[in-house]
Amino acid sequence: MAFEEAEGFSEILKIVLIGAANVGKTALVYRYVLNELPVALTSTIGVEFTKRVVTSISTGQKVQLHIWDTAGQERFKSVTKHYYRGADACIIVYDISNKESFEEVPNWLAELKDNTPEECIVCLLGNKMDLEATNHRRVSREEAMRYANAHGLVYHETSAFWDREVQMNPDKIVGGIEKIFDKTIGNALGRHSLKDEPKELLKPSGKGVKLDLQQLYTYHSDNRCGC
After folding, report:
1. What's the domain of life for this entry (predicted)?
2. DSSP readout, 10-58?
3. Which tens digit of pLDDT belongs to each residue from 184-224?
């Protein structure tokens, strides 16, 4: 998938990433959009929004993506679930080394069904696959695939990180993430209807666009934990 200038696109797709705190949702977005990781990873507070124009490998269409990265903490759910509405695709992320994050997936899926249209594409994504090499996997691929198949979800595994000891190639990692997004986009395009986002909340940035969260909620925290 190639990134393009922000003009001449034929479709707008809204993609929402959800899942427990510290499963690596923000790292996945950074790796996909910028092929890098944020300097200091902290838990997302509320919602972060990025938009990019890409050409889908699977369809050849030029698409503007609106990617919404939501907080996983319980106290932010009243804020974040509002942004599920109108989503063309949702990616539920869990950490393969954290069994509890996988056990929370049914709750996230139920919340999605209450707040998204029936045609929304839902993908289950096992993140931090690099930890498998150090015997930290706690959720088997077979268990996750059984759950995905039982609920009609597309299933993938990947990692936004790589461990020098196992010598994982970062180019292969970002390529894998691109394929996951591209497949999700291709699936969503067949069910998509054009929607407008709240443009008054957007502000330009050289690395996409993010919402000014001060306009959206009044909760602040000085105790951000790493993720």
Report:
1. Eukaryota
2. SEEEEEEEEESTTSSHHHHHHHHHHSS--SS-B---SEEEEEEEEE-TT
3. 888 888 775 444 444 333 333 334 433 333 333 333 333 33
Please give the Cα distance from 108 to 122 (Å, whole number): 11
Q: What is the DSSP string of 148-162?
A: HHHTT-EEEE--S--
Q: Which of 10, 7, 23, 3 is nearest to 72 (CA)?
A: 23
Task: Report CA torsion sign: 56, 116, 226, 156.
Answer: negative
Distance of alpha carbon 18 from alpha carbon 21, whole angstroms: 9
Nearest to 52 by CA among 42, 43, 63, 44: 63
Query: How far apart, in whole angstroms, are the C-alpha atoms of residue 91 and residue 99?
Result: 18
Q: How far apart are the first and last CA of the chain?
A: 27
∠ CA 124-125-128 to the nearest 5 degrees? 155
Q: What is the pLDDT of residues 63-96, one digit of tens each?
A: 999 999 886 555 456 555 677 888 999 999 999 9
Against a cut of 0.85, is the pTM above it? no
Sheet order of strands, 121-127 included: 2-4, 47-55, 62-70, 11-19, 89-95, 121-127, 154-157
The helix (H) or strand (E) run that includes residue 202 is strand 202-203
69 CB-near residues (< 8 Å, 6+ apart): 17, 25, 26, 29, 44, 47, 48, 49, 50
**Residue 195 — φ and ψ, nearest 5°?**
-130, 155
Q: Domains of the chain: which residue ranges? A: 2-215
